[in-house]
Design goal:
The chain is mainly α. It has 4 helices and no strands.
Length: 158
């Protein structure tokens, strides 16, 4: 196996980890927040935070490194329209994900504190949960469009 195929494999696996962990984590926290079960919310928030730190964060780093290397090796200039749009959308997703990561840490802390103290979740938790959810939609849409662009490499402009 040559180095191009190894890097391509890393790129694909990291994209699966990025999207899969993101979609899966969002699914579980979204529904845990609607369950009315504080223990479920505390456990899921804690696990979502871990999943983002252990899986999504490394994938976020591997994606651009491998992607730029692959584009270079394949002879695709970074200003090729489908590639430039992909990079821009990746940056949009990242701009949403960074505050989401911070929000997840806060949600986990608040849920753990509420559970330990026997108190309900504070209003701040629900405000942060709305922001977490609201930032997730454009990030996921951006990632889906990036997948489309990577697979199809459409002629867009120029």
């Amino acid at each position: 196996m040559n180095s191009y195929l190894v890097i391509k494999w890393l790129h694909i696996v990291s994209s699966v980890l990025l999207a899969g962990t993101g979609f899966g984590s969002a699914f579980y926290l979204f529904f845990a927040n609607r369950s009315g079960s504080l223990p479920a919310q505390a456990v899921v928030a804690r696990l979502v935070k871990r999943a983002d730190l252990w899986f999504t964060t490394p994938a976020v780093i591997v994606q651009p490194v491998t992607g730029v290397w692959l584009a270079s090796q394949a002879g695709w200039p970074l200003d090729t329209p489908w590639l430039a749009l992909s990079i821009g959308l990746y940056l949009v997703a990242g701009a949403c994900w960074l505050p989401v990561l911070w929000l997840q840490i806060q949600l986990s802390r608040m849920a753990d504190q509420a559970l330990a103290s026997g108190q309900p979740l504070p209003p701040r938790y629900w405000r942060f949960a709305r922001w977490w959810e609201g930032l997730g939609y454009p990030a996921f849409l951006a990632v889906l469009v990036v997948f489309y662009l990577m697979v199809n490499k459409p002629m867009l402009w120029g």
